Amino acid sequence: MKYLTGKPGWLLLLALGLAFPFFAKNDYHLTVMSTAYIFAIATLGLNLITGYTGQFNLAHSGFMAVGAYTVGILTVDYQVPFWIAFVLSGVVAAFLGIFIGLVSLRLKGHYFSIFTMCVGYIMFLVIEKWESLTHGTVGIIGIPAPTGVGSFTFDTPRSLYYLVFFFLVLGTWVMHRIATSLLGRTFVAIRNSDNLAESLGIDLMRNKLLAFLLSVFYAGLAGGLYAGFVRFLGPGIAGIEHTFDMTMYMLIGGLGTLLGPLLGALSVPWLTQYLQFLQEYRFIVFGPILVLLVIFVPHGIVGTYMGWRARREAGAIAPRSEAALAAKTQPEAGRA
């Protein structure tokens, strides 16, 4: 089990992702998994600002909607090629994040969360009411599928699955590089203590803003993929319930870890799918399961396992250290 969080574990997950379409029973399963991948990308972004930097952004689904509507509006109303619109989906979300971040990140703790919750609701209202731009409650219909790249086309559920999976792998690799870099350790220092980080010479506002922009950039790209995959958009994509879903993925998998949010984002949708036979009563089953996980596994599945492994390794090192110290002192005692 030690290898699950190391390189062999990641290679195993990559192999399983590549092989999944060959074991999927139908296109519906491919659609469920592809949608889970898209929200996993957005969850990676939320985990960066929340799990690593300690700022709970409740407007995250609003930024995902900004990315999705960027693709929808540009491709449908202005006939912009999909890939140009897709790149702009992350850029537009990050550009909007500059202004929101400069204001909101001056607040701390639950004040920041409440402020971003209000921002997220404003985003939802703008999308719903600005009919000349967003098409209002009617939504945007007929968003073109991603255009082919060379000999690769994306006109089947299987090809779209591999496209989304590629971006999930790429996004995970980039996030791993960020989390293990000096920048990632800076974010963790800010999460652990603002005052201590500032005393070490860390520019709090600049690093918080950078984490915020990277986070919403991930959300925007996930929204752009969502638009090209679903090909229909409505204001509901900006609903705060999607942010709570992504928060649930982080809590179940492990907040502030890289594998945890992925595990939560990929497992929870399948659990809800298998509970659909209960219809509206499925949340009566799912709710207590979530409560029990939060109570008994507060650090998530991956976080709890990593903590257990660290304690086990520390316990194994301690006897060896004591034995080495005893062996060192015995000869000295004999010479005396």
TrEMBL record:
Keywords: Cell membrane, Membrane, Transmembrane, Transmembrane helix. The chain crosses the membrane at residues 34-51, 58-76, 82-103, 110-127, 160-188, 209-229, 249-271, 283-302. It is a multi-pass membrane protein. InterPro entries: ABC_transp_permease, LivM-like. It comes from the Bacteria. It is found in: Cell membrane. GO terms for molecular function: branched-chain amino acid transmembrane transporter activity. This is Branched-chain amino acid ABC transporter permease. GO terms for cellular component: plasma membrane.
